[in-house]
Amino acid sequence: MENAANAGDSAYIGENNGAFAETVTRFIDSLDDMLRQKASGSSKPQKDSPDGELLIRLSEACDKYDMDGADRAMTEIDKFQYSSDEGLARWLKENVELMNFMEIRERINNFLSKEK
Fold it and tell me: Would you tell me the crossing angle of helices 52-63 and 67-77 to the nearest 10 degrees?
């Protein structure tokens, strides 16, 4: 992005700025989660990322607009602290509360496709 800006390549910046901003946001969210955990002395067990089966359960609950099912899956996901989920667990928790079911399904599908 810096090279494109220096070269005046606004087309490249326009095409890639959204992905760059999303990556930076996930990075900041991950740092925020890590600092919050450190400050609170959280004793949650560590995992790399949420279990794929739980993510699928959450996605299916969202597909059916099943708030109770989404809450149950989120409760299980929230039992752990994740080191490599790119801020997914935190984002899911916020969006389950907002009932952004379509966005949740899309983000889970994207995350699971990267995991393969």
Answer: 160
